[in-house]
Amino acid sequence: MGKKANKKKISVIIPCYNVEQYLDRCFDSLKKQTIGIENMELIFVNDASSDATLEKLESYEKQFPESIIVINFEENQRQGTARNVALQYATAPYIGYVDSDDWVESTMYEKMVNTIEKYDCDFVECQWDYAKSIDDRNSTKSWGEPGYMNLEDTNVRKEFIRSKIALVTLWDKVFKRDFLVDNDIFCPERILCEDIFFVYLAFVYAKSYYYMDDVLYHYFVNEGGTVRQKKAEYQFDKMTVTFGFLQECIERGLMDGSKYEIEWMFLEKYYVYMLWEIFEQFPERSYDMYIEMKDVITKWVPDYKSNPYRKLEGNEFDNLMLKLLDYDLNKDEFEGLRQHMLETISVSDAQEF
Predict the structure, then answer these.
(1) C-alpha to C-alpha distances, 322 to 186, 225, 273, 275, nearest whole angstrom
(2) Partner residues linked to 47 by β-bridges
(3) Are 154 and 257 in contact (CB under 8 A)?
(4) Most buried pick, 107, 109, 239, 244, via CB within 10 A?
């Protein structure tokens, strides 16, 4: 289970927990990559599964010993830890991530590696779809215009941040390994929604980016999975992770050059989208959470009203949610507004990630 000697083009990290029934589908899509499995380093992390996941992974490793690394955790540590540990094993110049119940198009990594090499950017991103099965898939909307972005250009960076911060995932991206390592971009551990922290840090540090106009990743809609559960306490991990991102940026001294971007990412994910989820799923806690959020924002982002990204925001829903911060609402006033908004607003832009 050590590192493989052959030089690879890309390392793909796949955390696995009790995915025996889905793992073959995922692995089949990886071994059929047109880039060639001989050019890939597949790093599977068994996160203390109680089913036959580890046995399957060990059988894959026996089939392709030069291309597969299996890391086994004796104790469940969640995806953040799995991804961090696996990155330490990665030897290829590019890093990708796959969730073990999902699958990818056969051309995904050839296209993405070719693109990141051609444009020499810090990371590339493809499009993806929701999939109930291989034959039942629904594409998501495109988040921004496809193409290359020089993020050192102020105006380009503003458009990038504005269009990308609502929906953040790891598995639709390929990163330069040096970009991740040199900037110490990592996942918080033993908590869900860890990809928000990771991707937002990447957004802050990135100097260049390419958005591909190709649907290459298939996100499996597992109705019994954790991320599909409603009224689940894990939803509040989004707040913890996003507040941790803000604190990390402050500690690293990143506010000097990226204050408005960092604070806007924090406001949108910590407050705007999270408060709407609370409206829908935790009505009895809505007012108390609103007060808590408002107190945190007043302390840590006191000039939120003057953030230039707020002027750029063209989404009526986002603007309405942010406007709630401007008033001292009592519980009855707040509840009346919450009910009115639930009855009158269709929020297609409020995302689940």
Answers:
(1) 29, 31, 10, 10
(2) 73
(3) no
(4) 109
C-beta atoms surrounding 155 within 10 Å: 7
Nearest in space to 60 (alpha carbons), one of 19, 5, 111: 19
The residues facing 137 across adjacent strands are 131
CA gap 278, 129 in Å, rounded: 26
Contact 104, 98 (CB under 8 A): yes
128, two tokens: 């993806």
C-alpha neighbours within 13 Å on the C-beta side of residue 208? 12
pLDDT in tens, 299-327: 999 999 889 888 776 667 777 888 889 88
Give this prediction's pTM: 0.90
| Sequence-separated (6 or more) residues with CB below 8 Å from residue 79 | 15, 47, 187, 192, 194
pLDDT tens across 177-228, in order? 999 999 999 999 988 989 999 999 999 999 999 999 999 999 998 765 545 4
Nearby residues of 339 by Cβ (< 8 Å), 6 or more positions away = none
Structure tokens given for 67: 């291309």
Torsion-angle region of 190 (φ positive above 0: left; ψ -120 to 50: alpha; else: beta): left
Which are the contacts of 338, defined by CB distance < 8 A and separation ≥ 6? 279, 283, 286
Cα 214-149-162 angle, rounded to 5 deg: 90
**Residues 325/297, Cβ–Cβ less than 8 Å:** yes
SS3 of the chain: the string is: CCCCCCCCCEEEEEEECCCHHHHHHHHHHHHCCCCCHHHEEEEEEEECCCCCHHHHHHHHHHHCCCCEEEEEECCCCHHHHHHHHHHHHCCCCEEEECCCCCEECCCHHHHHHHHHHHHCCCEEEEEEEEEEECCEEEECCCCCCCEEEECCCHHHHHHHHHHHCCCCCCCCEEEEHHHHHHCCCCCCCCCCCHHHHHHHHHHHHCCEEEEEEEEEEEEECCCCCHHHCCCCHHHHHHHHHHHHHHHHHHHCCCHHHHHHHHHHHHHHHHHHHHHHHHHHHCHHHHHHHHHHHHHHHHHHCCCHHHCHHHHHCCCHHHHHHHHHHHCCCCHHHHHHHHHHHHHHCCCCCCCCC
CB 242 within 8 A of CB 270: yes
